[in-house]
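Notebook, bench 3.
Goal today: get a predicted structure for Bacteriophage phiJL001 Gp84 C-terminal domain-containing protein from Ascidiaceihabitans donghaensis so we can plan the truncation constructs. The sequence was checked against the plasmid map this morning, with no discrepancies at the termini. Length recorded as 295 residues. Pasting the sequence as submitted so the record is complete.
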Amino acid sequence: MSDRREAFLAHVGTGLTTLCRCWRITRTDGVKYGFTDHDQNLRFGGVDFRAETGLSASALATSTGLSVDNTEALGALTDAAVREDDIEAGRFDGAEVRSWLVNWADVDQRWMQFRGTIGEMRRAGGAFQAELRGLTEALNRPLGRVYQKPCTAVLGDGTCRFDLSQPGFFTDKTVSDIEGNRIFRWTDFGAFDDAWFQRGRLNVQSGAAAGLWGAIKHDRLQDGIREIELWQPIRAPILPTDEVRLLAGCDKLLSTCSEKFSNIINFQGFPDLPGEDWLLSQPKSSNPNTGGSRR
């Protein structure tokens, strides 16, 4: 790495340079795209950087300290590069972006200028515009635990530690009846309690929407028909015969953690935390002020 940097600096120091910019976008599903403003395709790091995509970027705004670095990238929408339906489906949300200054005569001589993620992405008139956010963007997020009665963990994450791949906590289904990419219905669903998947998630396993998911708002059983309703529609076409996976839901209460998941040891809430009314309560012997546990 140091030899590559020294070679790049030596090339820049000559005053007669053969430099171009290259960008690599890595989506959260692992798909990679390479772009360059050079007039020919380049390749390094196992990625092809394509020249015919029309991608360009404004000047990188970089700084020391904790301020946020940012820039914007512009490019053409093409089936071979960035497609409008992929943007609409949200496949580029949070994608990692890396940008280099590259000696196109010797691609081993390059300098990374920017590393971050895609923020807001817009498209119009056959082109897209992506806001690029630097690594310090993550410092804008509030960190630390929140003291509240419900659990603060996400079911199955590193703090919850529950294994959702256990039998009984997921089911794979073939789509049969779908309404507006948001409501799914089945007549032969299986032996799951009513509302078992409420507050869970639906993952699309196959078809044009493969890799996308939605949060489950309602899980109802009426007249032998199981209806799963999402909070928002899946932003890509879903057809009958596509496969989906339903994951069990959690309402974040201590009783649910104990009785449904047997995972109370990892409960991340404070069920006995007194509410605001406790501050105004007067001592009395007939009804002890216990804090009103939501067990």
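The radius of gyration is 26 Å. The longest helix spans residues 2-13.
Flagging this for group meeting.
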